[in-house]
Each structure stands twice: as structure tokens, then as C-alpha cells.
């Protein structure tokens, strides 16, 4: 920023101290006098930081307009306009939410830390807690085309419910490596993947698991 001081009418320039003072006044006026829009934006950022920003862990979409996103501290948001606006969903949880599955626009499942499992049948307007027989984190969820709910926990157990989460079958794929994700392919075919290139598939609904070599030692 360039500051120009004009001579006084009596021909004397301002003293060095006065020049410095005026320069600082002009500089501070440029810093502190912000457009209204900028002040509003900065205030909003400060307010959000005061609440503590959420870390987002999972997003699922049904079509180009509708999607859910979930994250830490019980954060859940819904968009119905392709992400232009997000509507907070008041979930009855303060735990970190890490897993998300959607059967359709109305039926939504959310899994989280310490065995958290939530279900909505009205597109996220209302939620109910469901019981799952684990105190570990629910790290992944999938719903098959025929409505079977699959869940993966932090201790690498696989859970399957055929009655909307009221009862569960529990399976433990072999091995010691941690499992991170599962994919329901069709019918009774389900894949699970994890650390050190671990990959298993079941073709009988979880009763038996076959190890698959994926020729990598990387975490999946």
C-alpha cells in the first residue's frame, strides 16, 4: 500500500513522528474496514471452528440429487439438490459415525463407534437405535438387494441380519489381520478385505470363507 503525505500550507512537512502515526492509521483502516460480506463469512468460519469441525468418514448417494454424509461427533447431513445445500439430520448419537448403507431414499442405516447402529425409515427425519452384539466400532455396512443387512466390526467379525437388525448371525473369517470393508455382491456372496492384502469371499451367506490371493501385501 502506498501512502502519500502532502505538504502543509505553511510549507512545512509533518514531523517524522506524525508521518509514522498517519501511515499506521491509514494501514489499520485498510485492514479493519472490511466489506460486509467478508465480515459475515469470517464470523461464520469462527463460529464453526468454535463448535469444532467434524471429520467426514462416509458418503453414499442414491442419485445425482440425493446423498447422505456422516462423520465425527454424531454428524449426519442430507442433500436433495446435488450437494448445493446440506440439511443436518438429528441422529440420537454423539459417537463417531463411520459406516453408511441405504436401501432406498427412505431406509438408511448408520454404524459408528462402540457398537452404534442407527436406522431411519423416513429418509433421516427420525432415527431409532438398533442392537448389534458388539461393543467394537461398526466400520462398514451393506444391504443386499433382498434386504439382508451385513455389518463389519472393529474386531473383524461379520454380522448378518435378515430381520432388520432384530437378530444377528455372527461369523469370523479366518486369520489375524484386521478387516476394513465388505461388499455384498449378490445373494449369499459377500467379500471382506483388510490389512496386509487380506481378502475373503463367502458364497454361502457367511457359513464358510475362502481366502483369495490378490498378490499384494498392502492394506485393502
Question: Would you write up a description of this structure?
Answer:
- It is built from 2 helices and 16 strands.
- The protein is an alpha+beta fold.
- Helix content is 15%, strand content 33%.
- The longest helix is centred in the N-terminal third of the chain and has 17 residues.
Features:
about 220 residues; alpha+beta; 4-stranded antiparallel β-sheet
Write a short abstract of this structure.
The protein has helices at residues 16-32, 36-51; strands spanning 56-61, 67-71, 76-79, 87-88, 97-102, 108-112, 116-120, 128-129, 138-143, 149-153, 158-161, 169-171, 179-186, 189-194, 199-202, 210-211. With 220 residues, the protein is α+β, with helices and mostly antiparallel strands. The relative contact order is 0.08.
The class by helix and strand makeup works out as: alpha+beta
> What is the average of the pLDDT values?
78
Residue share in helix = 10-25%
Quaternary structure state of the chains depicted: single chain
What fraction of residues sit in β-strands?
Answer: 25-35%
Shape descriptor: globular
Please count the helical segments.
Answer: 2
Taking strands numbered 1, 2, ... along the chain, how are they ordered across the largest sheet?
Answer: 1-2-3-4
Query: How many beta strands in the DSSP annotation?
Result: 16
End-to-end C-alpha gap: 54 Å
Q: Return residue spans where pLDDT drops below 50 for at least 5 consecutive residues.
A: 1-51
- Computed CA radius of gyration, to the nearest angstrom: 28 Å
Largest sheet: 4 strands, antiparallel
Task: Encode the helix/strand succession as letters.
Answer: HHEEEEEEEEEEEEEEEE
